[in-house]
Automatic annotation (TrEMBL), chains A, B:
Protein name per Swiss-Prot or TrEMBL: Phosphomethylpyrimidine synthase
Residues that hold [4Fe-4S] cluster according to the record: 638, 641, 646
Cofactor: how bound: Binds 1 [4Fe-4S] cluster per subunit. The cluster is coordinated with 3 cysteines and an exchangeable S-adenosyl-L-methionine.
Cofactors demanded by this protein: [4Fe-4S] cluster
An individual GO BP term: thiamine diphosphate biosynthetic process
InterPro entries xrefs: ThiC, ThiC-associated_dom, ThiC/Bza_core_dom, ThiC/BzaA/B
Reported function: Catalyzes the synthesis of the hydroxymethylpyrimidine phosphate (HMP-P) moiety of thiamine from aminoimidazole ribotide (AIR) in a radical S-adenosyl-L-methionine (SAM)-dependent reaction.
Catalytic activity, reaction form: 5-amino-1-(5-phospho-beta-D-ribosyl)imidazole + S-adenosyl-L-methionine = 4-amino-2-methyl-5-(phosphooxymethyl)pyrimidine + CO + 5'-deoxyadenosine + formate + L-methionine + 3 H(+)
């Protein structure tokens, strides 16, 4: 990054800023962790509702904060950088120099402008202290999780140092004059590990800290973030606490930092958080937390620009994307990614083999371990939070795909299959997996073990190639855990509804409950142009069964690259799937939003209904198509029935009628008896069905 | 209809005609029933595919037949009129005169033009011979169904008369000079019943014929229609025959007319076919047939016109709507409906209480049995094929909705609740149900027993009001069956995923396996503007569990009336849900289309992929956004990976490689052994999981 290309383009990316309609950004500063500001979005309801503002999870970062100043040239504030340094065990160093091939040997004429600010990368100063690997839940050595505790978050015995608010965050980080060299301990950094006495600086990843019983700021942050301050809301509406079928998930009514730590220690959840992604607002991916969604962006050899991609990222998180994958494959890959990461408050994932392939003229046969490793280092230093690595595509499995209808559709999977066949060798990703772990652990880059053999059609779903790879991913999970790395597992793909559940069951079993991260799945192949829907069906179902993060599919899947509108459609569709899954799992707070919106609908509080929806702009626009007049926003009717008659109004009569019956009569217990009296001999107690 | 209003509008409705992209209309004339022409759509595949044209079910009627002349002024040919008359037992008579209130007392200035052609209505000349009511499957008295018979459809012993092709259909029916008066038997009509000897003309409804062991032309028609000529296709691709979890559905590999008859006799399927809907191309609704979808259209007091509604119907069936409900509530209701039915090849459903309400100034309290009955007669004579009747909304159940978040959201349900409360009387629909049956039986109008107490929010799902009503619908089903009427049951609504399955189970139990017809269900309340998706998820699932027809929900649900684009989006979304359900149920032929499209995708036959999709126009447009050049339609790459590299191409290398292994090695049985040899000790047989 020290040798910028000649700028061919002096325009800074334009991004969408400002609050979502009807909402305002708020921050909660948790007791005992005063350096943390947890972001939420509050939907302000009309006075007539008599209801407090409704708080929702907010992945959109400072872009929706009307008080924030956004300068894409500078990138977002790197508040988290302080947390990493005060924990210690890291060193700043001169990063790998950017090479022409990092950007596809783009000519100066086509080179995108380099991100102006340079940050020196951090890395671990010592190897992982962890040994032993596979930890059966409950995570060995980690204290029992007080899963049902409703106490406010409190410092864990070992983690006390984490709660000092002495170290107030410096607004911006200067890359110089601090923590030079492996031996020099960070000047003002508190070293919580001295408390623990396991040798300061030996721990680096969230998994290592969790296993050592230490609660990091990231863990505290996500605990509060997941709670949504729902304690009060649930107190107001006890009956809204979800029932549901959890299929073994155990979501506590209140998430404590200790619960987060324990889930991470067990490997059941991850916080994708590269130590070089200081701009990150930490989030957690796990079956016992809110179901998350990922949005894929990225340019290709055929289309798109840096500007578009940065805006796509900002646009995607505005509507609720929890993580973003940059799948760029064309020129300017390195530069595009730098702009994205420096401006991203959400974890960024990549598929490093894509860039590695660009570095050898798109010829998989020319791929080498050295070239791949160099690409990993490049991306580790930039701050990529998770890597998709297709180390489960092994030579012996490749022939299993020969008779498939659609062969190998995973791009990374087919690259590795090609390499294995061309050299008739086992995959270097598989054989060098230890080295990959050691490298990723130094930066706490999480694994997203890729499903390179996922089915690309209904015909190929759940075949032996797919499940053979899944077993291998389970073996690799053990190794990565032993090395101190966080892991999630990627899943299909194209799967008909009746074959979805077994995918979840096999994954939990094979991969020791590591978080599952699936692409859809698409439940039919026959609707190109609508694959956000064919896959939204499968995503909702597999999310219900236990998938922790759903990778979105846009309407352009199989047809082209998504534009800005497609990204929004994909994100909203997947927010629907994730929320439907939370409801069905019985997430204790999920139904609060459904109830709030339904109350607004029932009361004809149109504006509240729009603002409580996943997409207030579209809801408002659709309503206004038929009834544009502002008066109709408060009208007690809608275009479906018209002003003369309205079904909702009639229910008031019902309530008045019911009120005339005494409580005993209306009481559930006595209704059926009452029906018999009233000639309701047909009535049968619903509970008895 | 003899007193037309002054025409305020001389323009005939414009409708969309012409074939769907890449398809052609074909007709199959079944052996043994030469008067029948069964319509299909054939998707013509490119020569390079080496595949025959792909045949799909076609609900679009003559509008997509390039050889057909469409004249909306005349309406469609009334071929089915002959079938009804030759069966006998019917009489033509002077229909009820149209009254001003039938069109909401519209002023001449706002009156829509009356449909030009007048048809004298038909009705049964005798009461139903049926007695006894509830028939446990297998349908009493009906021969065992040869469910696995693969023999070509052959006349049933009793039904012989039905197969004569002497009566060639007259292209148009003249309403005069035929079958006057109750006693006069139809001139040239064969009387199959004389064969049966149960008293000629005593039978009228499809259920009555089915129970008498007689196979009607409608039954033969739907049998061939459901088969899609799939015998040959399945012979070509045995391995594509669906596995799947059917939850008790039993879909034979080949549908015979006798199987259709038996399913109808058991009450497990219906053919909604008013004897006055001569334009109808019969279709069947039942759990052991293809899952069907319904599209709602209709104007309201606020918006829309006759022209729009007729085009919406034509547009909806073009994209796959199997039935259409006209839910008009404003002025010109009668005239709008007449234009729709005379031009509709699919069954038309209505909610008669909507029009009845218009006839008493929108005040439910003023509703009377006489007014309602008169409305039923009006619509029976027009040819409406099924009525939604909310006879399960009983006075005793109304208080059960008092504590709901969204009370009663069914328009018909709330109308009846209001009436019951205002008069403190039991519903006249419930008390007069026998009379309603006798009336509907005369025209073979099918019941769609309405779920007036369906939940309108997640909070209200599966509550006691909903299930109390469902039990009542089960009782009413027995009565309707005893009266010779065909019945289906309406279902919710708003239901979270984990509460969907029990809805299906209770319905099957309570209603003797009568077909279930559900609205979605919506799996969350928080996405107005996207409720085609929130409900498409639930629709796919409940379709899998056994729902026979899915009522679509458009993006405008809760916000406004759907326009033409919304209708298409709703229909395509529900075609996805229905097909995903067929796949998951293991419908023997469902996967053929997925496989054909996936082969096209894998072979880069772009045009074939587009044409095989549910919406070729959109698929083509999306592809062209990124790669507009025609050259790219044959290019062996797409915009996702670009020309340099393509994952699909690599699979060819895999096949070449696999080819170098001998059959034994590649044989599934020996692969795992082979893996161990190759160091694949991690390999575990997927089947053993």
């Amino acid at each position: 990054m020290n040798k910028p290309f000649l700028p061919s383009d002096l325009v800074a990316p334009k991004v969408t800023t400002g609050p979502v309609q009807g909402s305002r950004k708020i921050y909660i500063v948790p007791e005992g962790a005063l350096v943390l500001r947890i972001p939420f979005r509050e939907i302000v309801l009309s006075e007539t509702s008599g209801e407090p503002p409704f708080r929702v999870y907010d992945s959109s970062g400072p872009y929706t904060d009307s008080a924030a100043t956004i300068d894409v040239e500078k990138g977002l504030p790197r508040l988290r950088d302080e947390w990493v340094k005060e924990r210690g065990g890291v060193e700043a160093y001169d990063g790998r120099a950017v090479k022409p091939e990092d950007n596809g040997n783009v000519s100066d004429a086509h080179a995108a402008r380099v991100f102006p600010t340079v940050h020196r990368p951090l890395r671990a100063i010592s190897p992982s202290p962890l040994r032993g690997g596979w930890r059966e839940a409950p995570g060995g050595g980690s204290p029992q999780s007080p899963e049902l505790s409703t106490a406010p978050p409190s410092p864990s015995p070992q983690g006390g140092g984490e709660f000092s608010d002495a170290a107030t965050p410096s607004p911006r980080l200067r890359g110089e004059g601090w923590g030079e060299g492996p031996q020099q301990a960070p000047a003002q950094a508190a070293d919580p590990l001295s408390v623990e006495g396991t040798g300061g600086g030996n721990l680096l990843t969230q998994l290592e800290y969790a296993r050592a019983g230490i609660i990091t700021k990231e863990m505290i942050y996500v605990a509060h973030r997941e709670n949504l301050g729902r304690a009060e809301a649930l107190a107001r509406a006890k009956d809204a606490i979800g029932d549901g079928e959890s299929f073994g998930a155990e979501i506590p009514e209140h998430i404590t930092p200790e619960f987060v730590r324990d889930e991470i220690a067990r490997g059941r959840a991850i916080i994708p958080a590269n130590i070089n992604h200081g701009e990150l607002e930490p989030m957690i991916i796990g079956r016992n937390f809110l179901v998350k969604i990922n949005a894929n962006i990225g340019n290709s050899a055929v289309t798109s620009s840096v500007e578009e991609e940065v805006e796509k990222m900002v646009w995607a998180i505005r509507w609720g994307a929890d993580t973003v994958m940059d799948l760029s494959t064309g020129r300017n890959i390195h530069t595009t990614r730098e702009w994205i990461i420096r401006n991203s408050p959400v974890p960024i994932g990549t598929v490093p083999i894509y860039q590695a392939l660009e570095k050898c003229d798109g010829d998989p046969v020319k791929l080498t371990w050295e070239l791949y490793r160099d690409t990993l280092i490049e991306q580790c230093e930039q701050g990529v939070d998770y890597f998709t690595i297709h180390a489960g595509v092994r030579l012996p499995f490749v022939p299993l795909t020969a008779n498939r209808v659609t062969g190998i559709v995973s791009r990374g999977g087919s690259i590795m299959a090609k390499w294995c066949l061309a050299h008739h060798k086992e995959s270097f990703l598989y054989e060098r997996f230890d080295e990959i772990c050691d490298l990723m652990r130094k930066y706490d880059v999480s694994f997203s073990l890729g499903d390179g053999l996922r089915p690309g059609s209904i015909a190929d779903a759940n075949d032996r190639a797919q499940f053979a790879e899944l077993e291998t991913l389970g073996e690799l999970t053990k190794i990565a855990w032993a090395k101190g790395c966080q892991v999630m597992i990627e899943g299909p793909g194209h799967v008909p509804m009746h074959k979805i559940k077994v995918n979840m069951e096999k994954q939990l079993k094979a991969c020791g409950e590591a978080p599952f991260y699936t692409l859809g799945p698409l439940t039919t192949d026959i609707a190109p142009g609508y694959d956000h829907i064919t896959s939204g069906i499968g995503a909702a179902m597999i999310g219900w069964y236990g998938t922790a993060m759903l990778c979105y599919v846009t309407p352009k899947e199989h047809l082209g690259l998504p534009n800005r509108d497609d990204v929004k459609t994909g994100v909203i569709t997947y927010k629907i799937a994730a929320h439907a899954a939370d409801l069905a799992k019985g997430h204790p707070a999920a139904q609060l939003r459904d109830d709030a919106l339904s109350r607004a609908r029932f009361d004809f509080r149109w504006q509240d209904q729009f603002n409580l929806s996943l997409d207030p702009d579209t809801a408002t626009a659709f309503h206004d198509e038929t009834l544009p007049k502002d008066a109709h926003k408060v009208a007690h009717f809608c275009s479906m029935c018209g002003p003369k008659f309205c079904s909702m109004k009639i229910t008031q009569d019902v309530r008045d009628y019911a009120a005339t019956l005494n409580d005993k009569e209306i009481g559930m217990a006595d209704m059926s008896e009452k029906f018999r009296k009233m000639g309701g001999e047909l009535y049968i107690d619903a509970e008895k069905q």
